[in-house]
Amino acid sequence: MKTYSKRPTVEKIKLRGRSDAILPTEETEAALDVRVFLDRVKAAGQLQVIPGGHWNLEIGAISEILAESPDAPALLFDEIVDYPRGYRVLSNILKSPFREALALGMSPETTPVQLVKEVKSRLAKFKPIPPVEVKKGPILENIIDGEHVDLLRFPTPKWHEMDGGRYIGTFDAVICRDPESGYVNIGTYRVQVHDEKTVGLFIIPGKHGNLIAQKYWDKGEECPFLIACGIPPSMIIASAVGIPWEVGEYDFLGGILGVPVPVTRGKITGLPMPAFSELVLEGYAPPPDRVSRPEGPFGEWPGYYASGSQDAPIVRIKAVYHRDNPIITGSPPFKTYLNSEMPTYIRAANIWSALERSGVPEVQGVWFPRQGRFVVAVSIRQRYPGHGRQAGLGVLATRDGGRDARMVIVVDDDIDITNINELLWAVSSRWDPKTASEILEVPASALNPRISPEKRASNDLVSSCIVIDACKPYSWRKEFPPASAVSSDYKEQVIRKWNHLLKKTPD
Fold first, then answer.
1. Are 285 and 314 in contact (CB under 8 A)?
2. Which residue ranges form the domains of the chain, and what is each CATH number?
3. Most distant CA pair in the chain: distance in Å?
4. CA dist., res. 433 & res. 439, Å (int)
């Protein structure tokens, strides 16, 4: 693999109009440049380079098979069949706590629970930091426009067997600007290659990108878009989570990382693209009632082809920007337990903070188990009767926990909610289905596979959700049979004494 020790860094790029700009730290540099990220992932032994894979299904299959391994490496595919060496695809990008911490600009030693706590802390102290425009950026190394645009030059995978085509946008950032306020929005939406100069764009109605595009379309105008298909790893934090309207994702990401995101403008639309992107498409989406094409199906994050195939907007690509030896960043969704937990850190932190703001005390943690992204787990230190039920119902009142939830599980603080075995042990041993449950209706999305065809046809997108109070019954919690496991204090003593044998880190 090529090394990048002499590549340009933000410090070496002249900033335009921002002499006071905050420069990146060693941690945030990896978050803002996928090549610095890969250098550090490789040094940690978590990168596997795979030569000779085929873009048609093979890259997706290898990604899924290796995602099932306990220590799933990041995968860099090169010498892809039908494509020259150096045109690469990166998958399984954030499938380890080490890589997720790097992408968040944190110490690689940060544990999953610490990640959520740190994100929560950063959100509590959050101050947006606008992006900084640079005169040059690696993304401008190659610019292709007009009749020379050919999307088929890039090794876009067909990820799943029943996909309706090849998807260049999975771990991506779709950028547009509100025509009224001028606010720049970034979302992660799936992008299908139709032909050399056209892509399909699937955006769920109500998402900010759709609302912005509709303003153009209502006036009969085409909506300008940038589609970054090779992005810095941190971009997925901003683009794949819910951020309030008119809070720019660049500003949000800058505030989370503590440094501004370097951007440079597209030559045709003037929209800002991440300066350290790998591959960016620039173009216009005509009103879909004028031009649309069948899009999908696509294997989505619940692990199903739930949305089928439908007519969707297209984007006519007018220019392509890419670095030398470009990398397409891919995150093909698999079954939920094989997907990255990265975007859920923001959602978990938001729910945690919302519960505290609403007056629910002693919340010790919030988590989305990888095994079921429709499940939310909450840990509390009980203080009064009904505390567990209150916390569970409170989750459904939040923006991040109230849509597509199928199960909310509340447990005592002696349970590690990031450990699915402990979570299910608590449910099976402390929950009484008849007396400690609530079933309610909640909003759902078209990607929820449990929505019936009749409900989809009538746009009746609601689903039921069960709130499980798996805490020890408050009135007799002190009489509840004690657990037989080793106490945490004694466990730590044993680990310290026998660490040469156990190879564990004390809590």
1. yes
2. 10-337 (2.30.110.10), 341-501 (3.40.1670.10)
3. 77
4. 11
